[in-house]
Every structure is written in structure tokens, then in C-alpha cells.
Amino acid sequence: MTAQAQYSGLNTSVLMLNRLYMAVRVISARRAMTLLYRDLVEVVSVEEGNYLSYDFETWVEVSEAKQSFEPERYDWIRTVRFDIAVPKIVRLLGYDKLPRATVKLNRRNLFARDQNRCQYCGRKFPTSELSIDHVTPRSQGGRNSWENLVCACVRCNTRKGGRTPTQAGMTLVTRPRMPRRSPVLSIKMSDSKYASWKQFLDYAYWNVELK
Residue 61's pLDDT is what? Predict the structure, then answer.
């Protein structure tokens, strides 16, 4: 890639598979293109139910055809020599370890799991107007866990205080659970742009962690 590349498509998300075609994580297009250029990954393109693989040079050639016939299906990286489509999926050529089968417990995943909805009043709020509430307060032995943390708006959090929902006369909209895969990834997959990811996501055995 040249120093004059326009980076408009380089922050697009790309699904990374290991050598055994199992999803490992989601990376930026910037990272994917660097790995592709260094021959550490190949592009996996799902076309009419078939998996087609491309190295950097052949993907540049394929991109030329895609730009003529279906440019709207891809994000693009423009250089002084050519335009290249951002791949949806890449596969590591020398990595076959199994991905970690847990979802990180962090603020981003909690907001995504609860869809920015207060779990007491049911209303949606901007992230800046939400807090994380311990269903069973820490003062009563509550722990930091998927099953004990929920999103709450300022008003509901203040009303509940240091009590359990039962003690405060409040009801949870949804029983909190640990998600089977990254909630952020679930939101991303609602975009048709990432439809080709679905067949690589096996809920029963592993989950993709965003990096």
C-alpha cells in the first residue's frame, strides 16, 4: 500500500478466521490489509455458497471486476495505482489455535447486551446517560458478574439506591445473563454488509471477541 492511500475504508470491520476456518476475532480493515500484503492471511470470499481464496495480487484483480459490477457491496481503499475492495473475511495461513470461548465482561459489552436500555424503566438512553447497576448491591454481597450487572438510567439507579429490586419495589425488564457471543458483534451482524460472517459463527463452541 502506498503512503498516498486514502484511508476512508481502513476502519471497516473484517472477520478473521484461523487456518481451520474458525473465527478468531474481528479486526480493522487496516490490520487485515497489512496482513494480506505480507502474505500472512488470504481473503475468503463467500460467493453462491462457495469459498474462494485470494492472495493480495489476485484480490487486487478481483477488486477491479467488483468495482465494475457491484461496487456498492464493498467499502473501498483508494491508492494512486488502484482501488481495492475491503474484504469481509480473511483467513490466517499459519494459525490453528482455538479461539477463547468467553465474552469479556466490560462496559461496552454490557451496554451492547442491554441495547442501551435501562433494565428498570425499559427506556433507551445515550451511553452518557446510563450507568451500570449491581442488581444485588455490593453492600449485600453482590458481585461483578453478567448475572448481577445491568444498565440503569440515572433516575432508576437513584430510586433503587443500595437495595435489591425487590426491596425497592422495582422489576427488571430482562433477566441478566451472560451472552453466548460478543453483544457488539451481534449488533454488527444486523447489518447486511456482514451477512457472509454468519456461517462461520458457531454459537455452541466459541464466540468472537472484538479487538
Answer: 92
